[in-house]
Design goal:
Helicase, Ruva Protein, domain 3, five-stranded parallel beta sheet, Rossmann fold, 4 domains, sequence-specific DNA binding, 20 helices, 48% helix, alpha/beta, single chain
């Protein structure tokens, strides 16, 4: 266990030397440092870590109250006890209001000083334990949705913890379905900004003509339909983090304005006449090759370097095959809970097939595949028959060929959409009733539909569940 650290700042050298000798003896397990140079203390205040500070109020070079304020900006701030002249109660009260824990008046007796210092050290110890506990809870919460113990995943965990301790812009790169947004949320959740919610924007989902307004806000009357002031996402994320999801799809016209905001740390809403500062940490994700986009002049190189101060890569599922059994078991429990059905076991041969199978869509594709496995398995074990029923791509598994006559026979969109939906519904209901042997209540539970909704579907299709019952 590391010793607690006590710093004493006073301009009286003789008193400092005497206190250091006495306190080093009386306060067991406490490292005592003294300084008669408050200017040096002020200059090094962010580099020095102390649990307790005994600080004189009146010093010629730097006022003790200014040092008190500076200590309050440390992370975490130390417990500060002020030394005041006899009878200067007004100054002591002011110090307490500005963050001091306690005060002691000069001249003081050593037993009185020891009593005050021990109380301050105990407070610092409790605060330290509380901070450690909060960090542990925050870390557990931040990694709630992460699974895996393979080497690539462990490296990712370590990268997240390291990045959380900085305020650098982070570019999170990886294939689709590898959990890039989860990484961004974990970095924010472990950071000093976690007391405020992460603000996220899916860049491709917002039309180009609206994206600038969403990011930077707009004044009333800035454009047709701007009926009131709109707070942009940068302003909403002030003091927190902003996630720019799929940044590679942001239009070049908006890239230029985004670059300016990142450089100046100021925004100007559309239609506004004044800039104002924002304190925002930028987290970005992409599954694209931004370097190629820079060559194609569809992504600004200077913006790339602003966003890519630090990179983190999310591993693809093929790089962490040893974690697939863990993921499959988790997804199976999750789906059973969603459907309200009994838990299911994965047969060993099925698990082996899932581990060897290629998953270009990564964890998201695996999760959807497990959903189909559970859905079409009324028994307690997911076996080879269940795997065979859903092993093909969804369209082929349902017996649907999108364009059976070739591309030349493409029909109107709405007609083709209706045909595909009808074909899927027929095949789905047929498999569902076969698995449940015509038990409508069980079929409804497995499918996630209400019994009434499923019954209406059967009536509309003219399907009699009795024909599926075993004689």
């Amino acid at each position: 266990m590391q010793p607690q650290r006590l710093l004493i700042v006073d301009d009286e050298k003789d008193m400092l030397e005497g206190l250091q000798r006495v306190l080093a003896y009386e306060l067991e397990g406490v490292s005592v440092t003294v300084s008669d140079d408050p200017e040096t203390v002020m200059a090094d205040i962010q580099q020095q870590c102390h649990d307790l500070v005994l600080l004189d109020v009146r010093m010629p070079e730097v006022d003790g109250m200014a040092l008190l304020e500076a200590f309050g900006r440390c992370e975490p701030p130390p417990t500060v006890i002020m030394m005041t002249a006899y009878g200067d109660i007004e100054t002591a009260v002011t110090a307490i209001k500005q963050g001091a824990y306690d005060f002691i008046t000069k001249p003081f007796e050593i037993p009185d000083l020891l009593r005050v210092l021990r109380k301050g050290l105990e407070r610092s110890r409790l605060i330290g334990e509380n901070l450690t506990l909060r960090r542990q809870v925050s870390e557990k919460a931040a990694f709630t949705h992460f699974l895996g113990q393979s080497q690539p995943v462990r490296r990712l965990y370590q990268a997240i913890k390291s990045l959380a301790n900085s305020d650098y812009a982070v570019l999170i790169r990886g294939e689709s379905g590898t959990g890039k947004e989860l990484v961004a949320r974990a970095i924010h959740g472990l950071s000093g900004r976690s007391s405020r919610d992460l603000v996220a924007v899916n860049c491709p989902a917002i039309p180009e003509h609206l994206l600038e307004s969403e990011l930077f806000g707009h004044e009333k009357g800035a454009f047709t339909g701007a009926m009131a002031y709109h707070k942009g996402l940068f302003e909403q994320a002030h003091g927190a983090s902003l996630l720019l999801d799929e940044i590679g799809d942001i239009p070049v016209s908006v890239q230029t304005k985004l670059l300016r905001v990142l450089q100046e740390r100021e925004i100007r809403p559309l239609g506004g006449t004044h800039d104002f500062r924002v304190d925002v940490r930028i987290l970005s994700t992409t599954n694209q090759n931004l370097e190629e986009k820079i060559k194609d002049r569809t992504f600004r190189e200077d913006l790339y370097y602003r966003l890519n101060v630090v990179s983190v890569f999310t591993p693809a599922l093929r790089e962490m095959r040893e974690d697939i059994p863990l993921l499959v078991q988790h997804f199976t429990r999750q789906v059973c809970d969603e459907l309200g059905c009994a838990s299911k076991r994965i047969a060993p041969e099925v698990m082996n097939r899932l581990v060897r199978r290629e998953w270009p869509g990564n964890a998201r594709e695996l999760q959807n595949f497990v959903r189909r496995l559970v859905l079409f398995t009324p028994e307690t074990e997911i076996d080879r028959d269940a795997l065979a029923a859903v092993a093909e791509e969804p369209d082929r598994a349902a017996g649907i060929t999108p364009f059976p006559g070739g591309i030349e026979e493409i029909r109107p969109y709405l007609d083709e959409k209706e045909r595909l939906i009808d074909a899927f519904t027929d095949q789905y209901v047929d498999q569902l009733l076969r698995k449940t042997q015509g038990n409508v209540s069980k079929a409804a539970r497995l499918s996630g539909l209400s019994r009434q909704a499923l019954q209406k579907m059967l009536n509309r299709k003219g399907i009699d569940p009795e024909t599926y019952r075993e004689s």
